[in-house]
Amino acid sequence: MTYQAVAFDLDGTLLSSQATILESSKQAIQRIRDKGIKVFFVTGRHHTAVRPYYAEIGLDTPVVCCNGTYLYDFKQDKVLEGNPLSAELASQLINQAQAEGIHTAVYFRDAMTYEQLNPHFTKFKKWVDSCPESVRPDVHQVEKFQKEIDKGTLVWKVLISDPDLEKMQSFVKTLPLDQVSPEWSWVDRIDITAVGNSKGAMLAKLLEREGISPQNVVAFGDNFNDISMLELVGLGVAMGGSEAEVQQRAKKTIGSHDQDSIAQELTTLFNL
């Protein structure tokens, strides 16, 4: 098979447990790009939280963000495709989650916001503050999400988080699945976006724009929100240590994201 592109999930996949891109991965990515292979980021992150890595790799391709909710072009600061939550639905989700005592964050058009810090956002902000100012993500506190929604600000997703997994699972059962797509993006976090959004669906649109058949693509992922992408492409690769279902739905499994697994796989696939 002659592959024309490689799609990477970020957290738990291309990023190590220290939230860094391994030097071996960077070198391998540069070598496949030198061969004319396209490289895409397909992530649950907001584009503002992708920017530091995008700049580090020196990419020039659009990014699939928020689990396929939108396709973002950094060069033009332009949303090429998008399916945001309606203001009414976003408000409903926020109110329901907060009534259950579930921590809530909202990803608006240009920023990731929270009303109160929780352990995840406290840790995340430390990383944000460590980023160079020129590429620093916009993550900030707001008094009330509703005030931003009332301004007409676009809502990409509502993120809910709680260490009580039974509470989270029960909450998901109450969601109107004809209107929203909940995706587990970490062991204690669920991304809620408009129905129909998935990494696979938006990657398919991106590949169509690029004139590349999904069968000519390799994708790397590690979590449930990656399954649609792994099944779409010609070669879906799961990271070692990922959930059993993710590995079962992928075509192969490699080593840990903390090892040189991605570099080794790219070296083999592209004869580097």
From TrEMBL:
**Gene3D superfamilies the record matches:** 3.30.1240.10, HAD superfamily/HAD-like
The highest taxon in the source lineage is Bacteria
Matching SUPFAM superfamilies: HAD-like
What GO molecular functions are on record for this protein?
Answer: magnesium ion binding; phosphatase activity
Q: Tell me which GO cellular component terms the UniProt record holds.
A: cytosol
One Pfam family recorded for the sequence:
Hydrolase_3
In Swiss-Prot or TrEMBL terms, this protein is called Pyridoxal phosphatase
Q: Which organism is it from?
A: Actinobacillus porcitonsillarum
Q: Which taxonomic lineage is given here? A: Bacteria, Pseudomonadati, Pseudomonadota, Gammaproteobacteria, Pasteurellales
